[in-house]
Amino acid sequence: MDRFDVQGGNPLKGEVHVNGAKNAALPLMAAALMGNGTTRLAGIPDLRDIRTMSALLRELGVDVNRTPDGTLEITPGDNGRIEAPYELVRQMRASVCLLGPLLARRKRARVSLPGGCVIGVRPIDLHLKGLSALGAEIELEGGYIDASATELIGSEIYLGGPHGSTALGTCNVMMAACLAKGRTIIECAACEPEIVDLAQFLTKMGARIDGAGSHRIVIDGVPELHGTEHQVIPDRIEAGTFMVAAAITGGDVTIRGMRTEHLSAVIDTVRRIGVDLETDGDTCRVRAPDALTASEVIALPYPGVPTDLQAQITALLVRAEGISVVTDKVFPDRFMHVAELSRMGAQIRKAGSSAIIVGQPELTAAPVMASDLRASAALVLAAMAAKGYTIIHRIYHIDRGYGRIEQRLNNLGARIERVQEDYP
Ligand code: EPU
Asked: Which amino acid residue places its CA nearest to atom 43 of ligand 1?
């Protein structure tokens, strides 16, 4: 298991290019299973979660190849394999988005229940409600979801839950509805750019979808879908993480290849914290101020500040003098980074679904432990800003969602070394 040794105190400077979006790529790969023929997905980042999804697809008899230019070629075949096993699903909850495509294309799906994770309970009741409404028979048995349907029938489905809609639930129902008979209307659909990207991809495959990106998506089922070509959207969470990296280290970084319109709430928030942002379509220059301004930040479903940037923004506010409050309304328990940031001298405590931060300009290095993908990113950010030498254990979490992150930050002037260690 690898760790990062980070020498803090170096302002980041230069340019960085954003990779393709992990959270868009995973449902696209699952959807490719529904097409007749080969699909080519360009710009898919080379990450651990992508490799896990590739392994799952191969388990289902799908041919997956990465070409030297980074395009994934996916050819489904139709061999009737329908099981996504626990061994792979437990490595990545997003495996659950195979449920809809398998059900629609192969009439049955056996997908291991993903279980809880450190960012919260994470039920999948809304996914199951949506697929049942399309006519699937669903049983939970031996830790597996067993779903079957000789034919899916379009339906009206409300996908709102206690914390808003569900991103992957919307993907699952939208994908299954593409091959259902008749019209499906998803009310309270998730609006994230990843949903829009999936809808555009499915449309290229021959699907008929209207309204993706709004709370009401209308899908008219078609008898079959075909393989196609698609370029995945840039990763808005990676772009936001680089913004915070520049701001927290007192740097000056230009981020290229992003979609600034996917980050309006984040840009607004980071500006409120006092950071100078110059945006121009696919580029954002981030210049840190002499002092950061304390703020109140609330993570909400899109178009709000994403929960996937909550930990990173919390780390930034640790350095803003004054009192800040960060609330997560999507995953109210996603605060594992709070205890680790405290080890670095942050004055921060959790109160319900919020973190209350008494900011101070200096952080000090300490050994810390990464607990999940975005919390790991927050620790790397804090470590780059801290005085001294921070060791971050269990950084395999960060490899799930950020490609070669230490090399890319080092290119900007960070000093991060990946070290192999035997750690329990
Ligand atoms: N929820 C339910 N019932 C459901 C599904 C979700 O109550 O059936 C609740 C969740 O517990 C949560 C809220 O609804 O409180 C939103 O969860 P959502 O279903 O939208 O999350 P997800 O689709 O499983 C995706 C991303 C997450 C990101 C969330 C929220 C992927 C692969 N994952 O998860 O990304 O945090 O949306 O935006 O797209 C990450 O990349 O680090 C990550 C965790």
From this structure: 308
